[in-house]
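Format notes (please read before filing issues)

Several people have asked whether sequences and structure tokens are stored in separate files. They are not. Every record keeps both together, in the order shown below: the sequence lines, then the token lines. Line labels are part of the format and must not be stripped during preprocessing.
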Amino acid sequence: MRKSLSARGAGVLLGGVLLLMPLAVAVAAPPRKGAAAPVAIVLGHEIRRADLAPPGGPRPDADAEWKAKSDALRLQGLLLAPLLMRYAQQKQLEPTPQEVRDCTAAMDAKSAELRERQKQELDTLRRQLGARDLSVADREDLRTRLMTLENVTRFDEADQAERAQNPELAAESSARVSRDMVLAWKVQRELHRQYGGDIIFQQAGPEAVGAYPLFLEERQKAGDFQILDPDLSRRFWERIRKGAGIRVEQDALETPWWLEKPAPKR
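Then the structure lines:
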């Protein structure tokens, strides 16, 4: 019997890179017809048209073309999440405790560096605002930037205070985030090592988009998933084979991005 797959149970896309999370317990449901019929099935779980709706609903000005592209993007996430989860299990890619600790330590250090840079930028903006020869436009721009950065700083300070009040909970939360980050990186590295292809830059780390076509073609032939809507299938494969994004070096996944040193300024 097929099961219904909700978007919340499929995983999280952070900056384009899939962070694998356990699937929510699916509710058994009989095959559907008509409007509720599935548009795709992955590992026995149904994906319905409603599951493709973006969080918060479509844009008010969205046209048919935008919706079609949005559907293909959402389908990519809903298919890749369980498939990559199983791939990680088969390849035994579960992060080690040391990998999680290293990631947490590196991210803590990066956060501390960012706070220091923000503090210096706040001082600079306040000093610049003290100048008497500023134009009205320049002064307004500086005020806007200062207000934005002050809001970010206040939010961060509140978060730090909350974490200080609950250190054990904060440590558990950091470990979960680090575990997901390490797992996502190990999956992307393994995909690239096995299938090759282009790697693109993502804010949450490099993504092996060039590996997806071969990986997904294999999984489709193995019967792990099928896309039942012909137009959605066409758009999905167009997106997968295009692999849009800024290309980076072929060794970009060999070192965890959080351990890489920033390039020296020239």
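For reference, the curators noted about this record: Residues 97-129 form the longest helix (33 residues). Residues 39 and 49 are 6 Å apart (CA to CA).
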